[in-house]
C-alpha cells in the first residue's frame, strides 16, 4: 500500500521561506511522478508543481515560477518543495500526490494522496 506523508508546513511572514517534504513508503519511488497541490479555503485544488519519476522533468504553475523549486531524492523516497519569497496568497493546505508515469498539474489523475500540511503566510 503506497503512503505519502507531508511535513514542513507552518506559519511564516511574507517574504519568508519554507521547505515541504513528501515522504513515500510502500513503493519504489522512482516509478512514480509526484505532484504538489494546494487548496485554499473555499477554493478548488490548484496544481502547484510536479516532477517526473526520474526527476529530469519539472513543471510549475505560473504564480510560483521563480519562487518555488521541486526536487526529489529517490534514495530517500522523498520529494521536496522549496518555497521562497512566500506571499499571503500562497496560504493553503498543501498536498503531495503520486501517479504512475508522467507528472501533471491536473489533480484528478493522481492515484495516491497525502493528508496535507498547512502553510500560512501572514504578518
Could you give a quick summary of the protein structure above?
The chain is mainly β and 123 residues long.
Distance between the first and last residues' Cα: 40 Å
Order of helix and strand elements from N to C terminus: EEEEEEEEEEE
Radius of gyration (Å): 13 Å
Percentage beta strand: over 45%
- Derived from helix and strand composition plus strand pairing, the structural class reads mainly beta
Tell me the number of strands. Answer: 11
The 3D shape can be described as globular
The average pLDDT value, as a whole number, equals 95
Largest sheet descriptor: 7 strands, mixed
Task: Provide key terms for this protein.
single chain; 123 residues; mainly beta; seven-stranded mixed sheet; four-stranded antiparallel sheet; globular
Verbal overview:
The protein has strands at 3-7, 10-12, 18-25, 32-39, 46-51, 58-60, 68-73, 78-83, 92-100, 112-113, 117-121. The chain has 123 residues and is mainly β. Strands 2, 4, 5, 6, 9, 10 and 11 form a seven-stranded mixed beta sheet that branches. The chain is globular, with a radius of gyration of 13 Å. The mean pLDDT is 95.
Set out the fold topology.
Elements (H helix, E strand, L loop, with lengths): L2 E5 L2 E3 L5 E8 L6 E8 L6 E6 L6 E3 L7 E6 L4 E6 L8 E9 L11 E2 L3 E5 L2
Parallel strand pairs: 2-11
Antiparallel strand pairs: 1-3, 3-8, 4-5, 4-9, 5-6, 7-8, 9-10, 9-11
Amino acid at each position: 500500500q503506497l503512503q505519502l506523508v507531508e511535513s514542513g508546513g507552518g506559519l511564516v511572514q511574507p517574504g519568508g521561506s519554507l521547505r515541504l517534504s513528501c515522504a513515500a513508503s510502500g513503493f519504489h519511488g522512482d516509478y512514480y511522478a509526484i505532484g504538489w497541490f494546494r487548496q485554499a479555503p473555499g477554493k478548488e485544488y490548484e496544481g502547484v508543481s510536479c516532477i517526473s519519476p526520474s526527476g529530469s522533468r519539472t513543471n510549475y504553475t505560473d504564480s510560483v515560477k521563480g519562487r518555488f523549486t521541486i526536487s526529489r531524492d529517490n534514495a530517500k523516497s522523498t520529494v521536496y518543495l522549496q518555497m521562497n519569497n512566500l506571499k499571503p496568497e500562497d496560504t493553503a493546505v498543501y498536498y503531495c500526490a503520486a501517479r504512475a508515469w508522467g507528472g501533471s498539474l491536473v489533480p484528478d489523475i493522481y492515484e495516491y494522496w497525502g493528508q496535507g500540511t498547512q502553510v500560512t503566510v501572514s504578518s
